[in-house]
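Ligand: magnesium ion. Inputs:
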Amino acid sequence: MLLKIITLPGDGIGPEVTGEAIRVLEATAESFGHQLTLTEKPIGGAALQLHNHPLPDDTLESCRSAGAVLLGAVGGPAFNDVPTHLRPEAGLLRLRHELGVFANLRPAVCYSALEDVSPLRPEVVRGVDLLIVRELLGGLYFGQPRSTTGPPGDRTAIDTMRYSEAEIERIARVAFDLARLRRRHVTSVDKANVLDCSRLWREVVIRVSREYPDVQLAHLYVDSAAMALVSRPPSMDVLLTENMFGDILSDQAGSIVGSIGMLPSASVGGRVALYEPVHGSAPDIARQGIANPLGAILSAAMMLRHSFNLPAEAACIEASVASVLDAGYRTKDIAQPGRSTISTAQMGEKVLEAVQNRARIGDRMAV
Ligand code: IPM
Ligand code: MG
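Predicted complex:
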């Protein structure tokens, strides 16, 4: 099979982790007999510096005609003072919008090897396997009007939270469909005691849920969901959220399973899907070779499964990550104090070797 992938390394640790995900993808493609074409394009601050725009036309066009897009991260303190529409984040948001990827899937799994790395007690995080289904193209991120007006010292800023029934309905369907492939439980997150958007959200989610009598539905206010996520995380199956609540809760979920560096994501629902680790550009550790590439590597696995329908290849990468963790290899973010650590590139190498070994063993078993 020919896999046509656009890579967008972006800023900060983005290029480092994307580089390792690419190496693992190449090894996987070779082991399973697929052909890979990888084309790198600039996005975010890197694109701003090169082309004065965080999402150059050429990058967008290339993504539109790709089989899938793999992104590292965007943003950094160097770009804090650029106008809003030129910020690195604006480039990413425009890309999501243009691709139409309204559903952001963020699985958070507690690997048994990392139970003692979580800030929560092992018995609290044991068995965590949840999926945040985050609406990605609505809410405060895209609502109009938005502005900052008035003289310095007396300014007013406005952002708008806006959701239509159609937008809520389509993301709810994604959550219920995915719940059917899991433990058949959806927890819908809102702030229906305060927000109109949330009252509409809850009403529409309840309406959609009638089409899924086999899936259990619960509702939590977002503050209570944040609490439940730390007090009883294994009880969570699918968490359905609007855009900003999902952004916040997914970072929290990262910490719960040991490190946000572990979390992958897939943004789907458009013609071309976008895969990116949940973590940001982490400028404080950029170019030190210590970032955790596993979130990016696991995002590549999600890409193989969702965009190219290659579940065995995806499962091979995921099992390889688990075995590398079981063997005790740790980047700094997932190492207990005093334990030895390996670099970003070494972690990529370990996963790559595990993928090759697994593919070889698979071959022998098939013979
Ligand atoms: C994320 C990030 C982005 C978001 C930023 C970089 C725009 O935090 O993917 O979680 O808020 O969606
Ligand atoms: Mg975020």
